[in-house]
Amino acid sequence: MKQPIFGLLLAVLVSSTAQAAGNSLNPILDDTWNFRLGATYMDASGTFSSTIQGEPTDKLSTDDLGIADYNWNPYFGARWRFTDRWRATFNYFGMETDGSVRQNFDRLIFGDIRATGFLEVESSFSTDFYVAQVGYSLLKNDRAELGLGAGLHVVDFDTSLKVRGKINGKSGSVKSDSADLTVPLPNILGYGTYAFTPKLSVDGGIGWFGLDYDQYSGNLVTVTANLEYRITDNIGLGVGYNYVDMDLEIEDNRTDTYDLQYKGPALYISAGF
Fold first, then answer.
1. Is 163 exposed, middle or buried (0-12, 13-18, 19+ CB in 10 A)?
2. Domains (ranges, CATH) in the chain?
């Protein structure tokens, strides 16, 4: 007799919990799974360098190298709400661009390249961000939620330069070099969602990282904000804004530094279930 009663009580408890979790004003607060697919229109600005150990450092500016401003790049996001308050998220976005300049340089140092004078420089620059996080909603009601979490940013840098001119003391030379790095960056974050209506909501987050360990040092700040309109209970359209500010130094066979800001809007379609 006890087993049927226990089973009935458990069924009632699960049912009432599911009902309570499904009474939010907007479906975005109840989706077990949520996916976003779209594109970002981002710009990268700042300086970077790649220096062989013991050699002088020359920080190169994205502006001086003629690296193109805003361009479109893919974006993907996924969220799994595995309890009413716990959730796991994964996001990917990146930027790939290039540049070309012909101008005088007092000095240009990048990896094995030592150049000066009038130079023709072709550059390519790409960054990929892979972000995995787990969060807990400290506040959650039928209209809003606020939470804290932690996770990992994995940032993949791929930078290359091709230089024509006076290189390593020899005029009329052509030389290429590149730096390809993958950097894991743990972070903490705060996030929130607010439903204005059953169809319109806003969500966003702020993340921070600071580390001085082994060959890695520096900090990373991320800010995201999104405004989403649900066309149906399961399909939505959104517009957002992303901002990333990083100041990193990685010491290995080379010393690589990145003092860069990434920023720009995003457009996406969402599916929630």
1. buried
2. 2-272 (2.40.128.90)
